[in-house]
Amino acid sequence: MGRTNVGKSTLFNRLTGTRDALVADYPGLTRDRLYGFTAAELPDAVVIDTGGLVVAGDSMAALMQAQVGLALDEADAVLMVVDGQAGLVAEDHHVASLLRRSGKPVVLAVNKGEGREAAGFTADFWELGFGQPRAISASRGDGVRELLDRALACCPPAAPGQEATDPAADPVPPGRRIAVLGRPNVGKSTLINRLLREERLVTRDEAGTTRDLVRVPFELEGEHFTLVDTAGLRRRAKVSGTIEKFSVAKTLQALDEADAVIVLLDAREGVTEQDASLIGLVIERGRALSIGINKWDGLSDSERRKFMHGFAHALPFLDFVEHHAISALHGSNILDLFRSAVRAATAAHAELPTQELTRILETLVEAHPPPIVRRQRIRLSYAHQGGRRPPLIVVHGTQTALLPDSYRRFLINEFRRAFKLTGTPIRLELRTGKNPFAGRRNTLTRRQLEKRRRLRRRPKR
Length: 461
Fold this sequence. Notes:
Layout: H1 8-16, E1 34-37, E2 46-49, H2 59-74, E3 78-83, H3 90-102, E4 106-111, H4 118-122, E5 134-135, H5 144-153, E6 176-182, H6 188-196, E7 214-220, E8 223-229, H7 242-257, E9 260-266, H8 273-284, E10 288-294, H9 301-314, E11 323-325, H10 334-348, H11 354-367, E12 372-373, E13 376-377, E14 379-387, E15 392-398, H12 405-419, E16 427-432, H13 446-457
Parallel strand pairs: 3-4, 4-5, 6-8, 6-9, 9-10, 10-11, 15-16
Antiparallel strand pairs: 1-2, 7-8, 12-13, 14-15
Helix pairs in contact: 11-12
């Protein structure tokens, strides 16, 4: 914890050995709580990054302070970070007063002490009353290990069964990853808060509220998941500023890591070009997909019919994806939407037996043979699975390079129907076996060639 722009997110990244928290020389960059495990070479602990505390501010500052208060309630010990280069300021006193009222043990970290003599650099901060200030450099890692050891020494012993799981194995909470994507201000954070039934994320009726990539553990019906909140994606021409570009990069990272993606649309604005582009990007990267049509409760019947007409016209390629009309604010149909994303993730990881794939291929070829192209017969022999997430089906045969796109789509649709692969793209790879006689010279003897010529010259009866 600490005031704005003192290096809390840099310290979080140093402790966790990641780059999960956005870092920039910009006050108020962090808004949501970020959780992470300490790096493998450090003692086991869970670290929480928080937004900066200010003495007075707007409604956004109040929402951020509420998130800091929730993190403080959960913490066993607090690392209060101050800026040694700027010296002691009034906002540091404000943070210290808040921490004293909490009753939590506090370790004072004086950041940005690269190459400085510790005693003189930290002298002013004894005034805060938290004991010996510890000079560190979050960017270089100087003094961070000693700081963590001191904080852990202040913590009560872990109860049985509460020890941190192996953070080196996977710094991300377990379970399938379900990422929520969409344009700014469509209700992504509100949807996650409603699923969790708590105000886990900062929400506000303003575009660009979420900046960081926030991973939240979630359990439903005994199964573990990780919900991933992302920053809203705008058209590339409208993306400006370093912070927004980093946020977009984090969102694309979440897309690559996800097992399934929920794309939220704003029912009041209809399907925009940016929505179609985002959905196309998800499918292009092979991610399982479910569509949520948010703010549905505020539409009249005629507006709903108009939206569905535009949806069918703008996204005709989404016939394999489930879509749900929801209200993230009131919670209508949000579990149906989440379960459809889980089904899509399950389909993306499905195992397709070679025997069954080949049997289906033979049935399809017998009922609808491939067309003859350039006087050449295309033969499809057998199929097997070549990968998952998304499913990759490899079909072997002869002259497969000539197979028309329409027949490829026919095979994909039939495989999808046979294995009930709803919500996930399917890749189809065609392979042609090598001709064993290709490139070989004629090995007939001279006598055999002469006999063949005589037969050709023999007059027909």
